[in-house]
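Proteins fold reproducibly. Look at a concrete instance:
___
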Amino acid sequence: MKNYLIIGYVLIALICSVYFKNCSSTAHYSYAYNLGKAVVWPVTIFKN
């Protein structure tokens, strides 16, 4: 079960990074920046 959660998190991060690179206000930054942003943003939602 833990492996599926990790794989799901990575897949969501990859999909979001492509979205951030193509359609967001940070599209002019590099793909690595947007990938890092996509990896971190779910954590920022649940920080409370």
Observations:
- The chain has two helices and no strands.
